[in-house]
Amino acid sequence: MLNPPSQPSAASESLKLLNSPGQDSSSHKITSTEVYALSLLAINNSMTFWMAYIVVYINPGDTPYTSMEVDLELTETQYGLLSGVTYFLLSALFSIFLGALVDKYSRKWTLVVAAFLWSGLVVAQSFATNFTTIIIPRIMMEIALTASNASALSLISDYFSAEYRGRACSLYEFGVYVGIGLSSFSIVLAKLTGWRNTLRICGGVGAFVAFLTLFIKEPQRGKFNSLQDNKEIEDISKSLSQIEKFKTSLKIIFTNKVCILLCLSNIVRYFGSSAIGFWSVKFFKSKFPDYQSEYSIINGVSVITINLISLYVGGAIGDYYEQKTPAAKSYIIAIGALISFPFLLVAFKFSNNFWLSVSLFMFSFLFSESWRGIVFSMLQNVFPSQLIGSAFAVFQVSGGITGASSSLLLGILSDKYNAAENPTAAGNLLTIVVGSAYIGSAPLFLLSGYFYGKYQFSQC
Asked: What ranges does the record give for the region Disordered, renumbered to this chain (predicted)?
């Protein structure tokens, strides 16, 4: 329910899964329509991360032809702005607006238009001649990228019932690692075709994916909501103005303890993820300069394969065990983060062997990287689908603020300690930031799981 009543008997009823379902979730069977849609949503997700992270990777060698950083004569701070700060900051600024847009208008067409826009804008970056001429189209691209998550995750909440959402969100989130893997392969592409042509290839693939997205179907909004939730949403829509509806939606979201705690957990945890995304490449480049091609291939293949296992197994275990232990999903996230950190500690701080460092780095993903798919399914299960866009926008704001601040901070620290050429400094920075994020987020995730258990998967 949107506003659970204070009477104990009514409250207990509100905690039941799909109390009065609009469609019986137990009879829900996955069809080719859902499979095609989820595949395209995951591929779009991979494109957004390829485009977001590609500037981290198109810098192999020291020639203007292969390295964007050399060609445009970027400082470390400017590079940090391009590779992380602008993306995360703009995500934070525009997420709420785009989330409300997704909750009101067609999610499919919002995604399709955004996909064509971001594909064209990544091509525009290939014509840059300095920092100013690359950051303008990149800012515009990053605004378009912000529409992806809210649109896709709102669609998933109406394609799949609660019992499938952990796996569905995990497979969707797998697109992130395909995108990062493609970004890693961009090192090889930049060596072969130059950094400018690598951006053009990326944009061409993105436009093709946007075309395929035209053929997904827009599902009925609120398909798996309780009848009471749908009635309350309908009453709100009839009685309130657009601004009042927006304020009411935000009030519902910001008074949901599960959502607030997951956002706080995301702030802490994402600090570590953005640090890895931003600095792991520079760490391996500076510490093991003779293994750039090997790292590109190993990172690309391992990120895709290992994270597929991590995401799907984590999502499947979460879907299964939350039927018995409602807080199970939060246990998976917290324990995974704690187990993975020792592998990262050895990889970044103690190992001087490339093969050992890269193996431990990749192996850590097996435990740590199922978290976002699980978190997405938890959010979907505590809100009706009419509010999913706005709820994920709030969640994205928390990650955006963290991503922007961490990228900027690491960029400044790397300039100060010359971490780009000093692998010891880079390793120390990674160890401190990632360790603090992983260990610090664990109790917050566990607390969110405690309140999630009280909701008993109700879309309220």
From this structure: 1-28
